[in-house]
Design a protein that fits this description.
Layout (H helix, E strand, L loop, with lengths): L6 E5 L4 H12 L3 E6 L2 H9 L6 E5 L5 H14 L5 E4 L14 H27 L5 E5 L12 H21 L5 E5 L26 H13 L4 E2 L4 H11 L1 H19 L2
Parallel strand pairs: 1-2, 1-4, 2-3, 4-5, 5-6, 6-7
Helix pairs in contact: 1-6, 3-4, 4-5, 7-8
């Protein structure tokens, strides 16, 4: 089919999961608009796509006016958006009292306010699609809050709530909303917590594996996308016996602090 039969917007497309999602979309025959703040990184992603499979869309997702302007440009050139992928994100890791307030604020603005602003601006374009979908890329830490990741978990819990509310609000319009919750993924952002991977016994996926799972679940019309494995078991345990999860994570955090001398 012609590329413009399926128009996909991916925020945070300059690296990591966003880049891999853009590549998955292109492989599925979509025309991908690569959104993000770092134009050079977006052009690197564009170079990794087949010729004619995408275009760069410079965008700060935390700027409401910029989101409206981007929607206007897309509307004028393409007329619609079929799939909006809210993937842009930041991470702040460490003891809560050591986090800089400005870093936490930027993280919340990117992880939570950004998807709200982009979605609100792009809704008119989604409504013109015959099969519109919104994909919000959260985290397993939006289901299971971990010590050392408290603020990040809060931002991703918020995104999960936004996804559920949005899904119910837009259902009668035929706009599907998918909440994706990948586990730790080996991206540039993961360097911020690489010392915590082993003591917290995290399973780590590649961006390509994460993106393939998300795209597959979106294509199947699922309401959410989760990895299989111990994290899903932990979610089930937390729903009925949260003190068990408390005990495990507190013990692991104690080991982290003892090793660091804190």
């Amino acid at each position: 089919m012609p590329r413009e039969d399926l128009i996909v917007v991916v925020t945070g497309a300059g690296s990591g999961i966003g880049r891999a999602l853009a590549q998955e979309s292109a492989r599925a025959g979509a025309f991908v608009l690569l959104a993000g703040r770092q134009e050079a990184a977006l052009r690197e992603t564009l170079a990794a796509l087949p010729d004619g499979a995408g275009a760069v869309l410079p965008l700060d997702v935390t700027d409401a006016e910029a989101c409206r302007a981007a929607a206007g440009r897309i509307g004028a050139q393409y007329g619609r958006v079929d799939i909006l992928v809210n993937n842009a994100g930041r991470i702040v890791v460490g003891d809560v009292e050591q986090a800089l307030p400005e870093d936490v604020r930027e993280m919340f603005e990117t992880n939570l306010l950004g998807p709200v602003l982009v979605t609100t601006a792009f809704l008119p374009l989604l409504r013109t699609s015959p099969s519109p979908r919104i994909v919000n890329v959260g985290s397993m830490l939006g289901d299971i809050a971990m010590p050392m990741f408290a603020a990040y978990s809060a931002s991703k819990f918020g995104l999960r709530g936004w996804s559920d509310g949005l899904r119910r609000e837009l259902r009668e319009e035929g706009i599907r909303v998918v909440h994706a919750a990948p586990r730790a993924t080996r991206t540039g952002a993961a360097r911020a917590f690489e010392d915590l991977i082993e003591p917290f016994k995290m399973q780590v996926d590649t961006p390509e594996k994460t993106a393939a799972r998300i795209w597959r679940d979106v294509a199947k019309g699922r309401r959410s996308s989760y990895p299989a494995g111990v994290e899903r078991v932990a979610c089930a345990i937390q729903s009925v016996a949260p003190w068990i999860v408390d005990h495990v994570l507190v013990s692991q955090a104690r080991n982290v602090r003892s090793k660091s001398g804190a």
